[in-house]
Alkaline/neutral invertase (Brassica rapa subsp. trilocularis), 466 residues
Amino acid sequence: MVSKAWEALFRSQVYFRGQPVGTIAAYDHASEEVLNYDQVFVRDFVPSALAFLMNGEPDIVKNFLLKTLQIQGHEKKIDRFKLGDGAMPASFKVLHNPIKKTDSIIADFGESAIGRVAPVDSGFWWIILLRAYTKSTGDHSLAERPECQKGMRLILSLCLSEGFDTFPTLLCADGCSMIDRRMGVYGYPIEIQVLFFMALQSARSMLKEDAEGKEFMDKIQKRLHAMSFHMRSYFWLDFQQLNDIYRYKTEEYSHTAVNKFNVIPDSIPDWVFDFMPLQGGYFVGNVSPARMDFRWFALGNCIAILSSLATPEQSMAIMDLIEARWDELVGEMPLKICYPALESHEWRIVTGCDPKNTRWSYHNGGSWPVLLWLLTAASIKTGRPQIARRAIDLAEARLLKDGWPEYYDGKSGRFIGKQARKFQTWSIAGYLVAKMMMEDPTHVGMISMEEEKHMKPVLNRSFSWC
Ligand code: GLC
């Protein structure tokens, strides 16, 4: 299965003037609708890149980082509105002209994407990948190049600028990351916050402390500090915390308020009371004024562990929850992108009646094999590789036979997704990365960060909430 996966991964490589610069999202010729699956997506390339790095083939990763950096310099406009200079593309496509024998690139910054949303995650993934490349190869010269330093600063200035914010978290539109359709992930979604946190940490380890870099370092440091407090206190949910929210008073004013965001206990959905185990916990999907999105999101929680945004205790609690709620979160195919699905009236209101995101399908509670690498990395980091082993066994029973689908549908992830592509590259690469990390756990270091001493002491909830 591993050699078949490598074959498929190599076949998905995209070349620009003879050099590999990325991997196509899906190599599914059987599907009539190509849409934009013939492009190199920044987020989709991450697991491919990690697989290549682990296999001792860093060139494609370096080419990708430099090519996307060049694309960052393209003019980006949606109608008459110009996007920020730092914005990174969601995807790009190489156009081959067989007559002139030339290659050119067209990129999408959201102006072609369904819903016209800019991918906030792309820039973060780019910085995270630059660190992974540097860690894995020991080659610091790439990150030290003036254009890479500038690229990082441009990305960071988009999110570190001063505004009207009262929270250190990043405010964004619906559909600006892996879930790229309307799914009620606007505001302060967990996925963006953890990627932001990890990108800040990665940048801190690579930015030069020269005149331009120094100013950023200071801002990064302060933001990391504020973010870890905010996320660890207000996004964290466990049995005790749930019980506290359930008993909240509302309409509190002033600094003594316990219920700072004025969350109305009646807005807690019924399912959470059954879902929450006595031992275990997780970072909820979103926190903003009078709104807590209690849904579980897999990517956000795994990256919280890898980036050490989660304290060691919280990391353990997340893994406890995954074990305790295995049937719901893993079922027959790792791993649910989010839990639970939106249904009926809620689905109509929140997704705008999206026929692709019906209950337990696609982004709405579908199971995405790509997430296997994140679960594996988190399991290894927390010293619980048996969790990853169990998940890999499930994936091995089906993935190859089913033709590496993009996602599975159903409450337990039993059915190949309604509109899932086959030979979806990140399903293939995610599997390979999971396998290689299990064989050599030191690979996890590329994508994992240790807790900073100064972030301690670990927050005590009764202190942070009272
Ligand atoms: C879908 C997914 C997105 C992915 C893209 C390419 O749009 O929602 O996360 O990057 O397909 O695979």
User: Anything to note?
Assistant: The longest strand covers residues 91-97. The CA atoms of residues 312 and 382 lie 8 Å apart. The two ends are 53 Å apart (CA to CA).
